[in-house]
Write a structure and sequence with these properties.
It is a single chain. By secondary structure, the protein is an alpha+beta fold. It folds into two domains: 36 residues; 133 residues, Nucleoside Triphosphate Pyrophosphohydrolase, CATH 3.90.79. It is built from three helices and 13 strands. The strands form three sheets. Strands 4, 5, 6, 7, 9, 11 and 13 form a seven-stranded mixed beta sheet that branches. A four-stranded mixed beta sheet has the order 1-2-3-10, with no helix packed on it. Strands 8-12 form a two-stranded antiparallel ribbon.
Length: 176
């Protein structure tokens, strides 16, 4: 059942997001004023798996005031290929550079009921340590987390970010 958009108007815009209001008609004829959030650019992330472990960052998210493990992700710069952005973000946030092929893992829209946001997630089978992360403000620590611990970390809410969950659960499902 498709919703009909009668009009949209801008409420706020900056270099990161564009908040809009839409006059939408539901299939039953009801109308409502719905909010939409558009991100400025798509994101890219890289899940590096080596010896049964995933390269993750432990970070605080001030919006939800929570800590958790995440794969390194960030915005794709204008003219940048998604895979190159994923590799760049991983290197900046972890200090590790992916080795070998970087392969597409999945495409996800984390919250399509409210925001137009897309993540292109990739996978690499190993990395070389270059030094401390260039973006040292991104996380409290970087570590190789055993994939066998992922289900427990999810249950403890130590992994709750949507794109990270999608990537790790897909990798676990494909292993079985």
């Amino acid at each position: 059942m498709r919703w009909t958009v009668h009009s949209e108007r801008s409420l706020y815009q900056d270099r990161w997001v564009h908040l809009r209001s839409a006059d939408v008609e539901l299939p039953n004829g009801d109308r409502l004023d719905h909010r939409l959030i558009h991100t400025a650019a798509p994101g890219a992330g890289l899940l590096v798996i080596d010896d049964g472990r995933a390269l993750l960052i432990w970070r605080h998210r001030f919006i939800t005031d929570t800590y958790g493990w995440e794969i390194p992700t960030g915005m794709i710069e204008p003219g940048e290929e998604p895979a190159a952005a994923a590799v760049r973000e991983a290197e900046e946030e972890t200090g590790w550079r992916a080795v070998g092929p970087v392969e597409p893992l999945l495409y996800t829209q984390p919250f399509p009921g409210l925001m137009a946001c897309e993540d292109h997630l990739f996978r690499a089978a190993g990395a070389t340590y270059l030094g401390p992360p260039a973006d040292d403000f991104e996380s409290d620590r970087v570590d190789w987390v055993p994939l066998a611990e992922v289900p427990t970390l999810i249950r403890k809410r130590h992994i709750s970010a949507g794109s990270t969950l999608n990537a790790l659960l897909l990798v676990l499902a494909l292993r079985n």
